[in-house]
Each structure stands twice: as C-alpha cells, then as structure tokens.
Design goal:
Strand order of the largest sheet: 1-2-6-3-7-17-8-16
Distance between the termini: 23 Å
Order of helices and strands: HHEEEEEHEHEEEEHHEEEEHEHEHEEH
Radius of gyration: 23 Å
Number of strands: 18
Structural class: alpha+beta
Helix content: 25-40%
Shape: elongated
CATH superfamily of the largest domain: Zn peptidases
CATH architecture of the largest domain: 3-Layer(aba) Sandwich
Length: about 350
Amino acid sequence: MNLSPVEQHLLDLCAVPSLTGEEGPLCDRVEAQLRALLGEGAVARDGHSLVVTPKVSAKGPRVVLAGHFDVVKTQHDGPTRVEGDRIYGPGAADMKSGLAVMLCLLEDIARGATPKLQPTFVFYEREEGPFLENRLGDILEHFPSLQTADLAVCLEPSSNGLQLGCMGSVHARVHFHGRTSHSARPWQGENAIHKSGAFLSRLAALAPRDVTIEGMLYREVISATLAEGGRGRNIVPDRFTLNVNHRFAPGRTADDAVADLQALVQGDAEIEVFDRSPSAPPYREHPLVQALIAEGVEGVEPKQAWTDVARFASVGVAAVNLGPGTQSQAHQRNEWTDRAALERGMILFRRWLLGTA
C-alpha cells in the first residue's frame, strides 16, 4: 500500500504506546528523528517534552505549533492499521494526527522549504491528565521565548475546522454530611444522600447560559459527573459526595465559576475546589488568525471544551485550535482518523506556514 509521508508518520506514532505519564519511549523516538533531521542545536528536551526550533531565514511573525504526545486509555479491537479511508490506532485522532503534520512540516523545512513565518514546534507530555500535571505550563516557563510568540496553534483534533477560544473548567467536590443509623430506623439518623436532593433539583433545572464573544457562541453549563457515598446497604449514610464540573465562557475566571457553584449550593454542603482551568478568548480579529482563515479552514466555530490555548492566553500569546484529526473520534473505542482529512490538513498547514501546497 502506498502511503503519503503524513500517513506513514501517523501510523508510526500510533504504533508507539504513550499513555499519559508513559510518553518517554515516543519522546525518545521523535527526539532521535528530529536531531538527525535538523541537527543537535535545533532540539531541546525537557522531561519527555521537546521544543524544536529549526533554522529559517524568515523574518516574519513568530508562531508556535503545539501538540501533545500522550493519549487516553481506549479499547482497540485490532492493531494500528490502514483500513479503507481510515487510519486506526490509539491517538489517531487525538492528537497524533496533529503530530504527524508537525513532523512533515519539519521535514519540509529540513529539505529547504522557506517558511513565511518563524516557527517553533512544541511536543509535550501529560495533556490528558489534571491541569496541574500538564507539562505545557512548565515548558512555557522554562522556555521564555515561547511567551513572546505572535500566535500559537494547538493541533487538537478539529476536523480541519478553526476552533476559537475555549471554555474554562472548574471541578469541585460537593460534600453532603449527615448522621448514620440503621436503615430500619432512619429517623435516628440524617441521610446525607437525601440532603443532596434540593441541590440536585436546582442543578437539573439549570439551563445553559449562552455567552457571545466576537460572534462566537459559548454555552456555560454545570453538571454532576460522579457520585460517591454510603457505608453499607443497611446503613443510613452520613456522607455523600458529588463531583460537579462547571464549564465557563471566555471572559470569566475560575473564581467567577466557584461563586456560581456557591450560589447553587446555597450553603447545603461543603465545596472543595480541586481543579481550575482558565478560559481563553477567541482572538478572531487577530491578523494571523484572519490569515489562517483565508487559507481555507473548514469552518470557524467556538471551542466548547477546554484546550491548551488557555495556557498560551494566560501568558499573553494569542492561540487557536486547528488540527486534521477527526474530532468525533477523540477518546473513542477503535479510534480512527480520516485519511483524506489528514491530507487536507497537511495542505492547509503547508499553505499557511510555507506558502506551498
């Protein structure tokens, strides 16, 4: 079977396991490839992350292309493979397809292609885990020049559509407290699960809050996602905990989201906030974003989820989401990405960065 370079890169990347926290072997492989391709001075390693700065003659704006090595644990009924118009494998969509494009662009530059922009490529670890364990924050701190870039593009799977901004996210544990008793005599206790009823009713009745920024519609939502409590099937529980996730729009902060949760709880329970991820603005009118749109992205829409564009925005770097991976396949069983979309993404990035197809 004849495969294009970007398809072969994707197959090779998917063949190397890289669950979150286990990115070392894949980082070793990509590092060796890029040092051989670009020279020792172009590649810097930090943990299991790489910052790659090819030598180019361009004097234009500075851009960062960023993608994460790690994938979530999913189930696959066969090996990494090409089957019809799809490439199957762990991370085929999220987001080794984006990494494959980045590797091809670096090969183009090594062969003499002249970028219109000054690019730096960041391959990093632990994106799929908790916010505080994501290594991109460390990379931005350890390589201060990244904080002076004019634009960053996160190659998350977006089916070649440009996704602007991102929602912020707060996770909190909402603890309800009661008093145990035998379930045959519940009046002798205080049922912590029952005490959550009023809060859950308010939560179920809560409609999404629509926020429009630069023509982009974001929907703020609050959801209970996990529940834990009880001591035994014949014991009135004295504790009950809900994990509540608040997704909030650009322009609002994690503190604003916590205040929303406090208002919703109404003092009925204890709130323990343990994960805060900031939102990011859309940057729709940024000149480099407009130039990217002009190259033929497949639609422009708001990013309803959270991505690392927020990390770039937090240090003053405009950032957008754009990648060739099939978005609907992220984190799915038998994850795949569309081969034609992968090729279209390759063409799009070559036009934008190199001025060629």
